[in-house]
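User: Show me a protein chain along with its predicted structure.
Assistant: Here is one chain, sequence first, then structure tokens.
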Amino acid sequence: MEYKDAAEPLKKAATDPSAENKKLNKSQQLKQVFKEYGAVGVSFHVGISLVSLGIFYLAVSSGVDMSTVLLKLGFSEASLQSRMAAGTSTFVLAYAVHKLFAPVRISITVVSVPFLVRYCRKAGFFKPPAP
């Protein structure tokens, strides 16, 4: 009978940071970025959220039928009906669509902030990390 090392998956997770990120859900990943990169992570996410809300407001106020667009992107009919009621204001509709795209914004933040901080450190804008 062959015995396998029970700690093998733990060793792999400890040495492979991407494996650790795959186990965390999106909000946990975002919290980890905020904890590790502080104000840069928060500022980047708030900035991207404001841009996202502005783009969706502009689209809705321009007359784009957002329910048709979202159905073509693969969102389910049930999730659209629960988020977007008929006769809502432009801002409320834009905000609902903005909230549907939260996983996309979180993913962009989680991927982009480490690269942004690394670039700023190389350029001399930020101090190098403490050892």
